[in-house]
Design goal:
By secondary structure, the protein is of the alpha/beta class. It folds into three domains: 14-119 and 249-260 and 270-402, 3-Layer(aba) Sandwich (Rossmann fold); 134-224, Helicase, Ruva Protein, domain 3; 410-512, no CATH class. It is built from 21 helices and 16 strands. The strands form three sheets. The chain has an eleven-stranded mixed β-sheet. Strands 15-14-16 form a three-stranded mixed β-sheet. A hairpin with a 5-residue loop joins strand 3 and strand 4. Helix 5 packs antiparallel against helix 6 and helix 19 (470-479) packs across helix 21 (498-512). The longest helix is centred in the middle third of the chain and has 22 residues, at 261-282. The protein is globular. The model is unreliable at 20-24 and 517-527 (pLDDT under 50).
Length: 527
C-alpha cells in the first residue's frame, strides 16, 4: 500500500497471488475444462482456490479410466458410489463392481441393484468362451494361470495343461477357430470344465506312456486345487451370465465367499477377459456417455502386474465406450502402466511418504500439492487430469469436498489426551482423526464384531456428538476381544502415527490399572 509516495511490502501466500493472476498462471485448469455440460458430465465438487464447480467429463482427457487412492476412511467408496449413481442418472450407464471383500453388496441392494455372490451358490466356468474362439480362450486361461501360479517355471506342466484343454474342447465338438459354437441342430454347445481337463490328464497318467510322470502328476495336482468338492467354483457350468453382468444396471459381483486371494483374482481376471472380448466384438458406438463402468477396489493382485487384463483394458483407451475405476489404499498396488494411461486420478488423503513418492513420481505434481494431499480431510481430494489440451495450466488441482448424493457422516477420535506437551504446542498437529461412518462399520465387521456390538459403538459416537476419546475407544475394542495388532492397524489407517499409537496404548494400560500420571513404563502390543 502506498503511504506518502512510498511503497510498503507485505507478504502474500501463493494462493492469494494466484487469485489475482499477477505474474503467475492460475493454479487450476481453465473453466472450459472444469465446468462441463451438466447434462453430459458428472458433478464432483468445487475447486479449493476459485470455488469453481468441477464436472468430470472424459472429453478433454486421454481416456475415461479413473484411479482412486487414499487411506481407509478417506472417502474412496463414498466417492465411487456417488460417481456410479450419477453416471446412471446422466448417461444411463451400467456398472459392474468386482467386489473383493463384499463391501458394496449392502449398498447395491439398497440402491435396487443386483448382487451375484461367487462361492455362495454361484459358479463361473473357467472354460466358458464368452464369444471367443477356443484357441484364444486357451491363451487367456494359460496367461491367467501364469499370473496367479508358478506354472511359468514349469514349461512341461504348462504344455501338458494347454494340450489337455485343447483336447477336451475338441472332444466336446468345438471348432477351435470360430466364435459361435453350435451342434448339428443349431443349439449352443455346452462348454467343458476343468474337471474334464483333469480327467484327460488322469487318463494319460494311467496309460503310463508319458516319459515324465512326475510332471504329469504335478500338472494334475495343480488343477485339482480348483476342482475339489466344495471348492469347484470355477469347475462347474456357469450360473453367472455375462450379458446380465454388463447390461443389468448396477451389479455387484461379490467375491468375499471365495476361499482366498488367488480364487478372487481368478474370478476377477476371467470376468475382465470376457468383458474385454465383449466390448471388442461390439466395437465403438456413437452413444452419449459411457455404456459400462467397471469398479476394481483393492484388487492388488490383478492391478499390480503389467501383464494383467486390467492393464490391457486401460490401455485400450476410450474406443469401446466403457471405463474402469481402480481404487486402492496403497498406490503402489496399482501398476505404473495404469497410472500412465488413466485419464483421471482422484487422490484422497495419502499419508505414507513412500506412497506420496510413488504418486508424485507417476503424476509429476509439485511439492506444494504433495503437502496438501498429506493433509487432506475426509472427502477432500486432489485431482490429476491427463489433459489432451495443450495449455500452461496445471493438471493437478484441489477439490474442497466431494459433494455426494447424501451427507457423509464422519466420526472423530479425540487424541488430546495422548499428545505430548510439544505436540500440544504445535498448531500443525491435529487433535483428532476422522473417518466415515460406513467405513468405520465395515472395518469393525472385518475384525469379526457382530452387528449388536457395532451398533452399540455407533450409538456411543452418536451420543457424544460423533466424537469419542481415543483411550476409551481402544478400551472398548479390547473389551470386545479385538487384539492390539488390529487396533493399531485401524489407527494407522485413520492417520495416527506410530509414536502416538504407543502413547495411546500406554494410556490405556495406565487407565485399566487405575494408575495416574503421564509416565509410561511399558507398552505391550498383543499378537
Amino acid at each position: 500500500m502506498g503511504i506518502a509516495g512510498k511503497l510498503k511490502l507485505v507478504k502474500l501466500p501463493n494462493t492469494a497471488i494466484a487469485r489475482r493472476s499477477i505474474l503467475v498462471y492460475p493454479p487450476e485448469p481453465p473453466m472450459e475444462v472444469l465446468f462441463g455440460d451438466p447434462t453430459n458430465s458428472i458433478y464432483i465438487g468445487r475447486t479449493k482456490i476459485f470455488n469453481v464447480p468441477f464436472y468430470w467429463s472424459f472429453e478433454n482427457v486421454a481416456n475415461p479410466h479413473i484411479a482412486v487412492v487414499g487411506i481407509s476412511g478417506s472417502g474412496k467408496s463414498y466417492f465411487i458410489k456417488t460417481f456410479l449413481l450419477r453416471s446412471a442418472f446422466v448417461w444411463n450407464s451400467n456398472a459392474l463392481i468386482i467386489d473383493w471383500a463384499g463391501e458394496y453388496k449392502d449398498w447395491v441392494k439398497q440402491s435396487g441393484g443386483k448382487v451375484i455372490s461367487l462361492g455362495k451358490g454361484s459358479y463361473l466356468n473357467l472354460l466358458d468362451l464368452g464369444g471367443m474362439k477356443p484357441y484364444d480362450r486357451i491363451k487367456q486361461v494359460m496367461r491367467t494361470m501364469e499370473l496367479l501360479t508358478d506354472i511359468s517355471n514349469y514349461p512341461e506342466q504348462r504344455r501338458l495343461t494347454e494340450q489337455a484343454i485343447e483336447k477336451i474342447y475338441i472332444e466336446s465338438k468345438f471348432r477351435m477357430d470360430v466364435r459361435e459354437q453350435k451342434d448339428e441342430l443349431g443349439k449352443p454347445l455346452t462348454p467343458p470344465t476343468l474337471k474334464d481337463v483333469v480327467r484327460v490328464l488322469t487318463d494319460q497318467a494311467q496309460v503310463g506312456s508319458y516319459d515324465f510322470p512326475a510332471e504329469l502328476e504335478n500338472a494334475i495336482y495343480r488343477l485339482k486345487q480348483f476342482t475339489k468338492s466344495g471348492e469347484d467354483f470355477f469347475a462347474q457350468q456357469s450360473t453367472v451370465k455375462l450379458e446380465e453382468l454388463i447390461t443389468s444396471g448396477l451389479v455387484d459381483l461379490d467375491l468375499s465367499g471365495l476361499p482366498d486371494e488367488t480364487a478372487r483374482a481368478l474370478a476377477a481376471l476371467t470376468i475382465l477377459q470376457f468383458i474385454k472380448e465383449k466390448m471388442r466384438l461390439e466395437g465403438w458406438s456413437n452413444v452419449k456417455g459411457l455404456k459400462l463402468l467397471i469398479v476394481l477396489d483393492e484388487a492388488w493382485k490383478i492391478g499390480k502386474d503389467d501383464n494383467s487384463d486390467a492393464v490391457m483394458i486401460v490401455r485400450e483407451g476410450r474406443k469401446y465406450n466403457f471405463a474402469m475405476i481402480i481404487a486402492s489404499q496403497n498406490p503402489t498396488d496399482i501398476s505404473e502402466a495404469i497410472f500412465s494411461n488413466v485419464g483421471t486420478t482422484f487422490m484422497l488423503k495419502v499419508k505414507f511418504e513412500k506412497f506420496l513418492d510413488y504418486l508424485q513420481g507417476s503424476l509429476n505434481f509439485s511439492n506444494y500439492m504433495r503437502d496438501e494431499i498429506s493433509r487432506l480431510g475426509v472427502g477432500q481430494c486432489a485431482v490429476n487430469l491427463a489433459l489432451t489440451l495443450s495449455t500452461p495450466y496445471p493438471s493437478t488441482f484441489l477439490i474442497s469436498k466431494i459433494e455426494g448424493e447424501e451427507p457423509s457422516k464422519e466420526y472423530f477420535l479425540d487424541l488430546s489426551e495422548v499428545l505430548t506437551e510439544k505436540q500440544r504446542r504445535d498448531v500443525a498437529v491435529s487433535r483428532s482423526v476422522s473417518f466415515l461412518k460406513e467405513d468405520f462399520r465395515r472395518k469393525l465387521r472385518q475384525f469379526g464384531l457382530g452387528d449388536d456390538k457395532i451398533e452399540d459403538l455407533t450409538k456411543t459416537f452418536d451420543k457424544g456428538n460423533r466424537r469419542m476419546d481415543v483411550v476409551s475407544f481402544v478400551i472398548t475394542l479390547e473389551r470386545y476381544g479385538i487384539v492390539r495388532r488390529n487396533i493399531g492397524d485401524f489407527l494407522k489407517d485413520a492417520g495416527v502415527d506410530d509414536i502416538t499409537i504407543i502413547n495411546i496404548f500406554g494410556k490405556v494400560d495406565l487407565k485399566k490399572s487405575g494408575g495416574v500420571g503421564r509416565e509410561i513404563s511399558q507398552v505391550v502390543l498383543e499378537e
